[in-house]
Amino acid sequence: MEIDSPDGVLPGWLIPARGVRGRAPVVIFYNGFDVTKELLYCIIREEFADRGIACLVVDAPGTGEPLRLRGVASRPDYEVPTKAVVDYLETRSDIDPARIGLLGISLGGYYAPRGASFEPRIKAVAAWGGVWDYGELWRHRWETRSQTTPVPFWQLPWVMGTETMAEALAKVTAFTLAEALPHLTQPFLIMHGADDSMIPLSHAERAIEAAGSADKQLLVFDGVDGGAEHCSMDDSDPARQLVADWFELRL
């Protein structure tokens, strides 16, 4: 499918809910820094569908096809593409517009909470990997030439749509949730690995503390009950099952 947005077409796949007659709830699933909608499907598979929830995996600005085929850079105000995606979902006869959730993985842990903070039609939001200040994270990576940086340094200017690293570091300073999260009132879940070497656990802790949500929870996976690495990719099934169950209770 193709979703019209201010950044041009956002391509996505809708994984339909199983066993639902009429309109189904849906979870929008956002990419991370270097993820694509094809990988999102491999990560989530049929977990939402098996619970009677549709799932829209979508390439938004700075990810997937928009970045790779059309040069569409990322943007800090992810409520803009979020509004466009929700507008599209409201046109579908198979989707319940009153039960729309939003999930983001890795840098999607910034995109999803930011989008939900300023889009009240999102009814629940989860971050598979907590993010607080992505600009701070990248300044530290660059200044220390960190050996745990998960991608080549040249990738930041590419995703930010800049010519130089200095310009990219300036643009990414806007990627902070400090001003957005106090506006978040929807149920909010963060899942984070205890041994995440890419994004420190402190980011998740600061984000959950700042959120205005009454229903908010930080779950830390320690390697016993699920993978302890970034986004639990060393053992992702417990996190995948948990987040699907969490949305089932809230949509």
From TrEMBL:
Record organism: Catenulispora pinistramenti
Protein name: Alpha/beta fold hydrolase
This protein's UniProt keywords: Hydrolase
Domain of life: Bacteria
Hydrolase as UniProt keyword: yes
Family: Belongs to the AB hydrolase superfamily.
Keyword Glycosyltransferase: no
Limits of the Peptidase S9 prolyl oligopeptidase catalytic domain: 48-230
Matches recorded under InterPro entries: AB_hydrolase_fold, FrsA_esterase, Peptidase_S9_cat
SUPFAM superfamilies according to UniProt: alpha/beta-Hydrolases (SSF53474)
GO molecular function, one term: hydrolase activity
PANTHER family to which the protein is assigned, alphabetical: CONIDIAL PIGMENT BIOSYNTHESIS PROTEIN AYG1 (AFU_ORTHOLOGUE AFUA_2G17550) (PTHR22946:SF12), DIENELACTONE HYDROLASE DOMAIN-CONTAINING PROTEIN-RELATED (PTHR22946)
Pfam families: Peptidase_S9
